[in-house]
């Protein structure tokens, strides 16, 4: 067991972890931040995406011990301070960017990573950035629309429905 | 996963010392190793995480050489290797954005997956693999699928790439996993052309020397007309036969030459 300490959504947290404790398990089981989901547990689906020191990573594919000292943001940190939905979350609601919602936390975390680095992406760039996120309802078109809308761009031009 | 401890040294020297323990295993970005551990295909007593070692991170360019620290992520190479655009493009095409933010060049080159992209760039550039103990030429480094010249506990601290006049990497992605079904890296240097192929051979990455000879005299896709590689020793699986992969090698080499310009 080792003690780890990190900043999660602006708060300093710490806990005892085993060597093989995955970051996602630390978030969900120790911190009870269950918004971060485990979909495939094989690095494919992106439902467990979190922001690690400003870059999106798959929290099922790193160990909690490796996040010692890191600055993390999870889906719980994406809302506004007053608890209302953040810009990306509101766009997902407005454009119906979810069906069952299981993949949504990872999609939102991928989207914030893209928009931070590329504030006005093209539709092709949005689709390319979502390469590591799988939606088994296959609702990709509305997810792309939501992200385009969150970037302040016109979504009327997106071809497919 | 089996139980193990994790250490996070902050210098290469500390990491080398930690790896002397029996059954200790180096952990870089973990994008291959962690899925392997989950499947219980490895049972190290201890993982030595290299992610906290600042001295092995970063990209620098100097006098026609681009040096990439062993702990540099694919995303950092994609963003930082502008002095070698074909290398930056290759790094930016590995996996997906989240994988590129964790996976490292040192981890990829140490693992030497037969379908990985980086081995093609390292061999195709005639790069030098720098470890804590020595420097290894690419031609001596790759020794077959998942096999390299690295000794137990040896850590890749950097890879030094001579920057070519022209280069390009083209991969044909297996549509589900997006690993390279076949990938070809072509690089034109003043003293000749190098062609390295990944994804195709049961022996891992290899140089297509007949194509190198033809392209060294005439760097154009047409110079490859009539050349083919044998299907013997090519990987055959549900995604494609050995003959299909051999055909792709010739097609993608032409495309890479055309893309290099």
TrEMBL record, chain A:
Its EC number is 1.2.5.3. Residues 2-78 form the 2Fe-2S ferredoxin-type domain. Gene3D superfamilies: 3.10.20.30, [2Fe-2S]-binding domain. It holds the Pfam family Fer2_2. Keywords: 2Fe-2S, Iron, Iron-sulfur, Metal-binding, Oxidoreductase. GO terms for molecular function: 2 iron, 2 sulfur cluster binding; carbon-monoxide oxygenase activity; metal ion binding. The keyword Signal does not apply. This is Carbon monoxide dehydrogenase small chain.
Automatic annotation (TrEMBL), chain B:
Pfam families: FAD_binding_5 (PF00941). It is an enzyme of class 1 (oxidoreductase). It comes from the Bacteria. This is Carbon monoxide dehydrogenase medium chain. The keyword Flavoprotein applies. GO terms for molecular function: carbon-monoxide oxygenase activity; FAD binding. Residues 1-166 form the FAD-binding PCMH-type domain. Keywords: FAD, Flavoprotein, Oxidoreductase. Coiled coil: none annotated. Its EC number is 1.2.5.3. PROSITE patterns: FAD_PCMH.
